[in-house]
């Protein structure tokens, strides 16, 4: 399924159905990624792939105290960029790959004056 996700629940069903992302969702996602620690967390989860990582492993990898990590995970989850599944007493976090793709698609929708596969050298020179 496509769209921004929060804990496995599609919080932007209109995008999934109509393929139109609300500007507010884009702004929220970009704002979440515009902070250094959250960007690091997101990139770590992208590298981890579909298996994801438990919160403790994320904190260890990025040398973050639990309270700080919790705050940033909450922000990324609220922005729809990551999701989690409970595994016993812990949470396994994964990047929202569909949300990431949707965000990139939204940002590049009108790229190159609508010319598909325009040469990168011709853009923005």
Give a summary of the structure in a few sentences:
50% of the residues lie in helices and 14% in strands.
Mind explaining what this structure looks like?
The protein is an alpha+beta fold and 125 residues long. The chain has a single domain (5-107), classed as Winged helix-like DNA-binding domain superfamily/Winged helix DNA-binding domain (Arc Repressor Mutant, subunit A, Orthogonal Bundle), CATH 1.10.10. Helix content is 50%, strand content 14%. The chain has helices at residues 13-18, 23-33, 36-48, 55-62, 66-78, 97-108; strands spanning 5-6, 9-10, 53-54, 82-87, 90-95. The chain has a three-stranded antiparallel β-sheet. It has a two-stranded antiparallel sheet with strand order 1-2. Strand 4 and strand 5 form a beta hairpin. The radius of gyration is 16 Å and the shape is elongated. The N and C termini lie far apart (37 Å). Mean pLDDT is 83; it is low at 1-7.
Q: What number of structural domains do the residues give?
A: 1
Structural class, from secondary structure content?
alpha+beta
The run of helices and strands is EEHHHEHHEEH
β-strand number: 5
CATH topology group: Arc Repressor Mutant, subunit A
The DSSP helix count reads 6
- Strand order across the largest sheet: 3-5-4
Low-confidence stretches: 1-7
CATH superfamily: Winged helix-like DNA-binding domain superfamily/Winged helix DNA-binding domain
**Largest β sheet strand count, sense and barrel closure:** 3 strands, antiparallel
Helix residue percentage: 40-55%
CATH architecture: Orthogonal Bundle
Mean pLDDT: 83
Instruction: Report how far apart the termini are.
Output: 37 Å
At the first level of CATH, what is the class? Mainly Alpha
- C-alpha Rg, in Å? 16 Å
User: What coarse outline follows from CA principal-axis ratios?
Assistant: elongated
């Amino acid at each position: 399924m496509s769209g921004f996700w929060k804990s496995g629940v599609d919080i932007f069903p209109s995008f999934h159905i109509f393929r139109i992302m609300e500007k507010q969702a884009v702004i929220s996602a970009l704002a979440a990624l515009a902070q250094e620690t959250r960007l690091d967390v997101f990139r770590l989860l992208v590298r981890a792939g579909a298996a994801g990582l438990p919160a403790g492993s994320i904190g260890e990898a990025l040398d973050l105290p639990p309270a700080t990590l919790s705050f940033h995970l909450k922000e990324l989850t609220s922005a729809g960029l990551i999701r989690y599944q409970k595994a016993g007493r812990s949470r396994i976090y994964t990047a929202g790959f569909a949300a990431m793709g949707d965000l990139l698609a939204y940002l590049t929708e009108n790229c190159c004056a609508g010319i598909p596969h325009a040469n990168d050298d011709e853009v923005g020179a």
